[in-house]
Write a sequence for this structure.
């Protein structure tokens, strides 16, 4: 597990992880089902006030207009009140990647960071674009929205460049496909793309170097990556901590890893759900604010 800016992290043997970490990564898990987990009955959402969000958004747009960034993932924390604890949220959620760091956070992420198969094929699936299914003509709207198309082109180009640092024969396998996510609020459509390349035969011996070349995750920072990271820190005004970092498992022959999004953190001030979205020159503040709030959910089916 590595944090948002790849400054801090840890590697732990799976046989020791259960003492302070629960995980379920695409079926590889150290946790058992908890049949007595209560249902989710309370999920009250208190996002930051719109003027607070707007202040950071305007700073981001100023930098975009100056050409300092083309795409920036702007996020804010939303206070939530729920009847469930962090471990109960872990057990009730349905997601490709789930992790609970005891006393800290629970994450139920739909987004792949990278996978590596037995032959050394490395694949990434950046996720960019979210719309409630209940929106009129939702599939056509999100697939033909000019802002969403431009945003997706930018992130695919960034991930291609990142993978080219560690792999050969990098190519886009699938461009802008849709996934449907069922939540406790509204069903959502998410847009992703698939990009892959071929690692050298000795990739097992340099796995740490490969990850450090690829981090921080491009889909939750932006482009150009390092300049955009500095703008993010000024605009957001809070510590992402583990949120938007990555976590994964290496079983000796394959790697599966996810991005730490859909993330609930426990603090002295209560529980906070961190979320956001990609900002481009075509973005409108209210639409981005609404998208941020739409991502404050628990995947329940």
């Amino acid at each position: 597990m590595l944090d948002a800016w790849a400054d801090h992290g840890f590697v732990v043997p799976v046989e020791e992880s259960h003492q302070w970490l629960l995980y379920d990564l695409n079926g590889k898990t150290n946790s058992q089902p908890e049949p007595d987990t209560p249902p989710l009955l309370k999920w009250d959402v208190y996002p930051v006030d719109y003027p607070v969000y707007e202040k950071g958004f305007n700073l981001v747009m100023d930098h975009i207009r100056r050409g300092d960034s083309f795409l920036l993932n702007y996020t804010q924390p939303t206070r939530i009140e729920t009847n469930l604890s962090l471990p109960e949220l872990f057990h009730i959620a349905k997601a490709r990647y789930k992790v609970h760091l005891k006393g800290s956070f629970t994450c139920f992420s739909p987004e792949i960071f990278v996978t590596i198969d037995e032959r050394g094929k490395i694949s990434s699936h950046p996720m960019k674009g979210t719309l409630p299914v209940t929106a009129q003509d939702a599939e056509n709207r999100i697939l033909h929205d000019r802002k969403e198309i431009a945003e997706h082109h930018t992130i695919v180009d960034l991930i291609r460049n990142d993978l080219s640092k560690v792999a050969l024969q990098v190519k886009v396998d699938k461009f802008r496909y849709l996934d449907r996510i069922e939540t406790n609020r509204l069903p959502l459509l998410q847009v992703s793309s698939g990009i892959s390349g071929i690692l050298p035969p000795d990739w097992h011996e340099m796995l740490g170097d490969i990850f450090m070349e690829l981090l921080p995750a491009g889909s939750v920072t932006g482009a150009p990556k390092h300049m955009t990271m500095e703008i993010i820190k000024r605009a957001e005004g809070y510590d992402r901590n583990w949120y938007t970092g990555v976590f994964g498992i290496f079983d000796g022959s394959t790697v599966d890893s996810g991005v730490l999004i859909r993330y609930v953190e426990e603090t002295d001030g209560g529980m906070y759900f961190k979320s956001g979205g990609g900002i481009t020159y075509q973005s409108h503040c209210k639409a981005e604010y609404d998208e941020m709030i739409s991502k404050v959910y628990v995947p329940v089916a």
In short: DSSP finds eight helices and 16 strands in the chain. Helices lie at 14-17, 50-65, 86-92, 138-144, 146-164, 207-214, 225-236, 285-294. The chain has a mean pLDDT of 93. The first strand starts at residue 21 and ends at 25.
